[in-house]
Amino acid sequence: xxxxxxxxxxxxxxxxxxxxxxxxxxxxxxxxxxxxxxxxxxxxxxxxxxxxxxxxxxxxxxxxxxxxxxxxxxxxxxxxxxxxxxxxxxxxxxxxxxxxxxxxxxxxxxxxxxxxxxxxxxxxxxxxxxxxxxxxxxxxxxxxxxxxxxxxxxxxxxxxxxxxxxxxxxxxxxxxxxxxxxxxxxxxxxxxxxxxxxxxxxxxxxxxxxxxxxxxxxxxxxxxxxxxxxxxxxxxxxxxxxxxxxxxxxxxxxxxxxxxxxxxxxxxxxxxxxxxxxxxxxxxxxxxxxxxxxxxxxxxxxxxxxxxxxxxxxxxxxxxxxxxxxxxxxxxxxxxxxxxxxxxxxxxxxxxxxxxxxxxxxxxxxxxxxxxxxxxxxxxxxxxxxxxxxxxxxxxxxxxxxxxxxxxxxxxxxxxxxxxxxxxxxxxxxxxxxxxxx
Length: 438
Ligand code: MTE
Fold this sequence. Notes:
The protein is α+β, with helices and mostly antiparallel strands. It has helices at 4-7, 17-45, 54-57, 151-155, 184-188, 201-207, 234-237, 289-292, 403-410; strands at residues 88-89, 101-103, 121-122, 136-141, 147-150, 160-167, 191-200, 217-222, 229-233, 242-247, 250-251, 261-263, 276-282, 297-298, 304-305, 314-319, 330-339, 345-351, 359-360, 362-363, 373-381, 386-394, 423-426, 432-435. Helix content is 16%, strand content 28%. It has a five-stranded mixed sheet with strand order 5-4-13-8-9. Strands 6, 7, 10, 11 and 12 form a five-stranded antiparallel sheet that branches. Strand 10 (242-247) and strand 11 form a beta hairpin. The chain starts with a helix and ends with a strand. Bound molecules: ligand MTE.
């Protein structure tokens, strides 16, 4: 009925000139698509969808002649009709692009896996395409035998593959005070989910004989100019943390840390150190600039909360969502994503009246710990204005809060760790906008 990738329309004042041109091109496609869909639906109701539709009567070129040869592209690309689906930067968010964010287009994605080319990016000091033959990982500090590993050394070790979400602690951060951005791409797009392959950090720590008595923390350091460093408690390091070289079946993309990154399931993205070059075992947290000054939560009493790194249970409806337009009254599939840094998602409820009544959505399999979960729910839109919300609960029993509940505890001046319920308003015209409803 409706292709979410094409229906998505980001308001122009949020885009640069090239993006506006792309969106306008997409909008023409969308209007054509909407017209065809409406025509097909109308005819469908009369029981003669095919009869009046020229697209099915005329045999197109591709049905009458030979197509492209195999391997015309050594590395496959999306269809030329899907060009509008891009990760996008929010111009002006940072002074230079090297320290910015590009947001994943959640409104146009299906299932739970983020295609590698659409994975969000967040760099403190730009990205590099590092030569893997020159890259080294050093493990040192409170260990019996410090070691320097080449990529070949690492890839000979026992490997594991796990599916996990990664969410930047700043995701949805612009919405603390009020509605700030128009689409789900910008409200929630610092979120992605991949199958990662690598070696468990515990395997490397064992290999170097870490000090089990005094080694209470590890420090992870990246090889980029930002010297990004994060402390991780030993208990977590030994649990499910991975030193990964692959995402979704291929080597990491340069933007996402090629050739090596840390995967810290359930924990905010900043701890997933990219271009990983050093692991140090120590006996206390390091309180580096990236944990003492940045990624802290400004509380209502003026104090800063540090090390609040677990990404709490959260969900968002991705279709219909801000910037999209419902084409017609009647049946709609409402779909979205839910996740929790503490384990599995247990339930997602959806409200069609701003939070007064809730219905339980269908969770699509797989439902994995610290991984995105896709939910779907049937809905018949009567054509009037409504407010849509989703509310997730994880296996610990924690329920995603409303924005005003979160503000009561956290105030409005934070940047990080906003996991509030998102509200989308559907107007009578079918247009969907970002609103805050209590
Ligand atoms: N690692 C290094 N070395 N340098 C960085 O700038 N950014 C961090 C983290 N790891 C960063 C880094 C932040 S803030 C986030 S949210 C994630 O990487 C983003 O990962 P992605 O770019 O693969 O989405």
